[in-house]
Design brief:
- It is a single chain.
- The chain folds into 5 domains: about 160 residues, BirA Bifunctional Protein, domain 2 (2-Layer Sandwich); about 70 residues, no CATH class; about 55 residues, no CATH class; about 70 residues, no CATH class; about 110 residues, no CATH class.
- The protein has 16 helices and 21 strands.
- Strand 17 and strand 18 form a beta hairpin.
- The longest helix has 29 residues.
- It is flat, with a radius of gyration of 39 Å.
- The C terminus is likely disordered.
Length: about 500
């Protein structure tokens, strides 16, 4: 599919051309009919924005002959509407007309650049955007693809089925055992399309792709000249189309190899490596070799028989930048892993030591106390400030608080006992209607629904028989139990209390 775009100011002249004989109006967003009345509607809106000297756009969408059977009017409207929407004109006045006056099916669209909001649709880089949109529509609607053959130029390509009709030689393409001008043109289009679409990187692959279309490839003049053969007729590639000379085809192969190389390196640099040598070893397994230049100031990549200077592959890829990229990549991976482990620790409801927990996950933690804390993972140092949203003082204080509260709930027999115990541990308690707030280590922590007063009171009621039983057996509870006198603690009991408290220290 090819799209042509022109800009002008004479809507009447354009409409007179569109509404000629053998035309068919597919769709319009104006109320009027006829050239004069539609012209009046367009002009009324255009005059609302007099700064725009050329308010009319004329789009022409041309389709390959092989697509005509599957393109009824309904499908043409759907494709054209999608094209206008992506180009930004769906809220504008337009008239869509089908012409049947040429061999190739095409649709004309006259559009008012001034929208109903009186703003002018921007048309910067519209030809580039148009080509990209057309390529997407070709894929979306399974239409014959179009090749780009130069600066802003395109040509329709024919499928192998439509290229040279089946059966005997067709005079349209072959005459007196030679290809006609149109025959050469279609052969060139088919070969060029194969070259662009198959992304071949050598002549063997390219030859195999052409054979599927009944086109042969051979070399002449000691391999210096490439020829294409169809139905026994040989044509020099350079004469057929300048971009099909041996040199230009080799340059196309080289461009395809370079594209593959860039993609491989980009993918490789996103992985985790211990160092530059590890990276080089990994890309060598992908068939990429590195060769230092004689100057020792640069290097080249060897891939699929071609050599590319690093600056050609990507100016950002230098030895120092590879080192930096690997280091950054490794550090980002380390940061993500450490962050994940910390969040896992926060969600853990059991009372575990943070240092032991993080060590079990392969991370070493250095508590900076008054200074910034640090982590070490796979010999990569990560500072606390580099972990977004992580406040180790709050995390550790919260975890310690959980341990103390759990201990207090387990052994208290009343809310007063509970609060006294926490106060002894420098924890202030604020009792709300439906929650408890704890102030500890410079942080205020909402205990949430699990620490509602009624819930804790019920737990205290359950604890009372157990504590009384412990008293009878001369067992000691390591908290202030209010009016319950548990007597003096033995040395073993004191050691047990110290051991428990030490386990909760950070």
């Amino acid at each position: 599919m090819i799209g042509r775009i022109t800009t002008g100011k004479d809507i009447k002249g354009l409409l007179e051309y569109l509404f000629k004989d053998d035309s068919e109006i597919l769709q319009k967003t104006v109320l009027s009919d006829g050239v004069d009345r539609i012209t009046w509607e367009f002009n009324m809106l255009s005059q609302c924005n007099p700064r725009i000297e050329k308010p009319i756009k004329h789009f022409v969408l041309s389709f390959a002959k092989s697509d005509e059977e599957k393109l009824d009017n309904e499908k043409l409207i759907e494709i054209a509407d999608k094209y206008l929407e992506d180009m930004g004109y769906m809220k504008n006045q337009y008239v869509m007309v089908r012409h049947n006056d040429t061999e190739r099916l095409h649709v004309h669209i006259a559009v008012n650049r001034i929208g109903l909001d009186v703003k002018c649709v921007a048309d910067s880089f519209e030809k580039v955007r148009s080509r990209n949109i057309l390529r997407q529509l070709e894929k979306q609607y399974d239409l014959e693809q179009t090749a780009e053959v130069g600066k802003g130029k395109e040509m329709l390509l024919l499928s192998s089925e439509s290229f040279f009709e089946n059966g005997s030689k067709n005079e349209k393409y072959i005459l007196n055992n030679e290809l006609t001008k149109q025959g050469k043109s279609n052969l060139a289009k088919t070969v060029f399309r194969t070259l662009k679409s198959e992304k071949s990187t050598n002549f063997e692959d390219f030859k195999n792709s052409l054979m599927k279309k009944n086109i042969g490839l051979e070399f002449k003049n000691s391999g210096k000249v490439i020829c294409f053969e169809f139905k026994g007729i040989n044509v020099n590639g350079g004469e057929l189309y300048k971009k099909l000379s041996k040199y230009n085809i080799e340059q196309e192969f080289r461009a395809n190899i370079l594209s593959d190389l860039r993609n491989c390196l980009k993918e490789s640099l996103n992985r985790n490596y211990k160092g530059r040598d590890d990276f080089f070893e990994a890309i060598e397994k992908m068939g990429i070799l590195i060769r230092m230049n004689k100057s020792k100031n640069g290097y080249s990549f060897l891939y699929k028989g071609e050599s590319f200077k690093a600056s050609v592959v990507d100016r950002k890829i230098t030895l120092s930048k590879i080192n930096d990229t690997i280091e950054i990549s490794n550090k980002e991976n380390a940061k993500d892993y450490i962050f994940e482990v910390i969040k896992k620790f926060e969600k853990n409801r059991t009372l575990i030591d943070f240092n032991e927990f993080i060590k079990d996950n392969g991370i070493v933690f250095y508590n900076g106390n008054d200074k910034e804390s640090k982590f070490l993972y796979n010999e990569i140092e990560v500072k606390e400030s580099e972990l977004r949203g992580v406040n180790m003082s709050k995390i550790l204080s919260t975890h310690k608080l959980k341990g103390i509260i759990t201990e207090a709930i387990e052994y208290s027999t009343s809310l007063d006992d509970f609060i006294d115990y926490l106060n002894e541990k420098s924890i202030k308690v604020e009792i709300g209607d439906e929650k408890l707030l704890y102030q500890f280590g410079g942080f205020e922590i909402d205990a949430g629904k699990e620490s509602l007063t009624d819930f804790i009171e019920s737990r205290f009621a359950q604890n009372l028989p157990e504590i009384q039983n412990d008293k009878i057996q001369n067992k000691s509870i390591p908290i202030n139990t209010g009016s319950v006198d548990l007597g003096e603690k033995s040395d073993e009991e004191e050691e047990e209390i110290k051991r428990r408290n030490k386990g909760m220290e950070i």
